[in-house]
Structures are given as C-alpha cells and as structure tokens.
Sequence to fold (195 residues):
Amino acid sequence: MMVTLDGEREQVRSMIKVEVEKLMRFGADITQLTYNDKATGSALACVLPRNMRESYVQDGSLENIKRFHWIFNELPFRTHQDVLPQRQSHMDSVVARVVQAMHITWAPKKEGETNSHRNCIEHTYSRILNEKRQTIIVSNGTSHGRKPLVRHPKSLAAAIGADYYKRGMKIFYWSSKTEGDNLVRTKLSVGDLIV
Fold:
C-alpha cells in the first residue's frame, strides 16, 4: 500500500512539474526572455529552466527583473484569473487536471474547514513553483545582485512610493545590497504586464 501511495505521489509531482515548466516556457515566450548562448555567441529564447537561470545571471537589467516578476508572480495568479473562465488561477486549473487524470475524490470537509484551506495537491503545486523560483532567482553567482521581492504592505506609508496601493494588494519590488529596495513599476499599466 505504501509503495502504491509513493508511486501515486510521484506521479502527481511529475504532472505538476510538467505543468509548471509549461507555464514558465509560456511566460518566457510572451516576455521574449533570452539568454546568451556561449557556444553560438547569440541570444536564444529560454525554453528550459536552466536557460532562464542563465538569463537571470547574465542580465540584471530592470527589464529582465520585470520579466521574472511577471513570469513567477503575476502570470500564475493574477493574469490567469483574468484570462481563464471562472477566474481560476494556474494552480486551480492544474489541480483540476490532476484530480481528473488521477480520478481523485475528496473526503467531505471537516467541521470548521473552509474553501481557503489548501489540499495536498495545492501544497505540492506551491512547493514546486517556489522551488523553481528559488532555483532560478538566486543572487549568488550574479554580478548585479538584484532580487525580485513581493510584499503586502499594511499602509500607504509602508508601500514605498506605490501610488496604486490598495490594502491587501501585492506590491512588487526588486532589491540589492547596493541599491536597496525599489519598485518594479510606479504606475500600473497594460504595457507593464509584458515588459
């Protein structure tokens, strides 16, 4: 029984990993994320997570930081909710696909458990997405030392210059030891979603 459960757990993890990597490729394609290939000496499109890591190491410009912000913070959640029917995030659609493919049925909710409680598949999705993000966006080994951050400021004063602040809203920053914390964008516009 334990061997069967471990096999099913690995199958779920691999399905989620494939979907997260598809999402990353999709985001890299939309933002036109490239890296400099040392063998050919030219800029190539990022198709693999290691290509994205090379792009992050090679290019610390604000344009590239905005691209990584969009791919890892806005695309899976806000952008997918705006595009998909029933305002689903990428995690919701992946969980629905995994549940359908694995023929999973959930036990009835416990007393006091609400829809905001995450199930094991949602936890696995979050863990895999965070692992990918932390593997790619590590300031070690980079010359620029810039790192994207997400904050939830509790007041306008804590939002450090974000004129579009609303309570409970995510604000995207980039940080470095030499330059401190800076906003990714000062005003929210459609053009900022892609670049």
